[in-house]
């Protein structure tokens, strides 16, 4: 081992540990489909982790520490990259993204300043240009990579507040979205000083979309009350049902009213890689800003989100800083430092200075696989959802509630005529499935009733296995419904 004051390992130990880590990752990626979707640690394991004392001396055998970590990661959590992880929005990352994350960390790549990170800056700019092109966004669109959709929404809405309100009347600023919008939007607005009393979560229409008519009426009402509407947040694929708000109509309204249109496309914007998805997302290029998470439907490891702006100069106006004295000197060679007004310097584009070289994940993956492969994987997710929808409608005892939209669908189990099955049977069936460990499906609420929800974006997902999951959910739900009926019958005053 190295001396106590040195945080180093011998070269041969580093290589041996690195090989073990890579082997563990490859084993996980190639073999997880045969195993459970995740595990739950025992109470003993949790108690041991919670009470573990701080190690004062280094490990005699670092390999044993890695073995412990491997076992904990393998058995102690759910795996969002598992092909039968169908809940929320799965995270089916590519191996190239894993390698890129390791390379970025291993080389301590600087990304906060163009002077120290010229190549990382160039790669990020190129990857942003590629991503904007894949999504069909206008020439000149720019932005930066951030940790995820929450930070992307926060960054975009900060620009919206500054560009529209121009630093005045923030206490009157008011924003608008539907009740299907992700909670990260309201949280971002809270950070910006836009309290819950000035966030209008308007009821979605029957298609789970933000309707322009009620939106216009509420904006007019708020203006009459002396408030300052400044932003509309639209959805390009809600997490709940995959719904897409009417983007062309919302864009036209925002232009006419001088409002900022931000589109939360964290999950769904990637559908624009294929013709069918681009048609469903018509109007996406009209947004003032867009959030998209490559760590979702572009198959990258977390953390990798992106904020894109039609006019990226707004980032500089919002986040640009005066150069402090310790940066305003000169190179050792005597050359002056780069003028921050020349070219893009990401230190002026967001709230984070020291950043992971996130762009490398998507850049390397696109270089290795090519954009067409990504488009094919996105198309596969859309088609799989469509096929599964047909199966659900044809299977006795199940029916679609919301049809497939951007690889998300919801369905219900149909009770026997005259039965009133409690909504909690849906939730309990999902928990029963989770306890079995073979798949994970989570419920949602549509039109006031609990339903099953499935997201099919993982290209490793097998259609036959998806059908088996639906059948098993129907069985579990039926058992819960029968038990609930028996309990009602036994209740005093219940049905005879």
UniProtKB/TrEMBL annotation:
<dbReference type="InterPro" id="IPR015421">
    <property type="entry name" value="PyrdxlP-dep_Trfase_major"/>
</dbReference>
<keyword id="KW-0663">Pyridoxal phosphate</keyword>
<dbReference type="InterPro" id="IPR015422">
    <property type="entry name" value="PyrdxlP-dep_Trfase_small"/>
</dbReference>
<dbReference type="InterPro" id="IPR002129">
    <property type="entry name" value="PyrdxlP-dep_de-COase"/>
</dbReference>
<dbReference type="InterPro" id="IPR010977">
    <property type="entry name" value="Aromatic_deC"/>
</dbReference>
<dbReference type="GO" id="GO:0006520">
    <property type="term" value="P:amino acid metabolic process"/>
</dbReference>
<keyword id="KW-0456">Lyase</keyword>
<protein>
    <submittedName>
        <fullName>L-2,4-diaminobutyrate decarboxylase</fullName>
    </submittedName>
</protein>
<comment type="similarity">
    <text>Belongs to the group II decarboxylase family.</text>
</comment>
<dbReference type="GO" id="GO:0030170">
    <property type="term" value="F:pyridoxal phosphate binding"/>
</dbReference>
<dbReference type="GO" id="GO:0019752">
    <property type="term" value="P:carboxylic acid metabolic process"/>
</dbReference>
<dbReference type="InterPro" id="IPR015424">
    <property type="entry name" value="PyrdxlP-dep_Trfase"/>
</dbReference>
<dbReference type="Pfam" id="PF00282">
    <property type="entry name" value="Pyridoxal_deC"/>
</dbReference>
<keyword id="KW-0210">Decarboxylase</keyword>
<dbReference type="GO" id="GO:0004058">
    <property type="term" value="F:aromatic-L-amino-acid decarboxylase activity"/>
</dbReference>
<feature type="modified residue" description="N6-(pyridoxal phosphate)lysine">
    <location>
        <position position="296"/>
    </location>
</feature>
